[in-house]
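Q: NTCP7 protein, please. Structure only.
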Amino acid sequence: LGSSSSVPFTSIFSQLFMTVVVPLIIGQIVRRYIKDWLERKKPPFGAISSCVLLMIIYTTFCDTFANPNIDLDKFSLIIIVFIIFSVQMSFMFLTFLFSTRNQSTFTPADTVAIVFCSTHKSLTLGIPMLKIVFAGYEHLSLISVPLLIYHPAQILLGSLLVPTIKSWMVSRQK
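A: Structure for NTCP7 protein:
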């Protein structure tokens, strides 16, 4: 096409490493030394992680829709929501089919874990990656819209499918 661009791979990978990998490594090292104390005190990590996730989702929604450069009409948003729900359901259906085929050695409990875990994508990793890879890009808000929809969609679809998948799993285990 006669045009070229350069991508700062070293900068992107070093930022991703510092943002994602280093905190995980530090957490694993620290956990080893304070495991007994944590088991005695039992801090409310579930509530803390839910609050942090909610804060990340809230600030990302605010950043996205407060941006005056976002040019997203209602029809386009509805189409995006439809596409994302369709993709999410397709992924869940395909993982269910692959994990329940005749040659599969997965138990029903394994299948449930595969269906939910393999299709799970989180804002807590996706948004920092987008901000690092697309730093300075004026349409970053527009790029983050599908991820902002995908995360709540997987929670909603998962909660709607729990009774059906639970009854399937119970019937297979008998």
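A: Brief note, in case it's useful. The mean pLDDT is 85.
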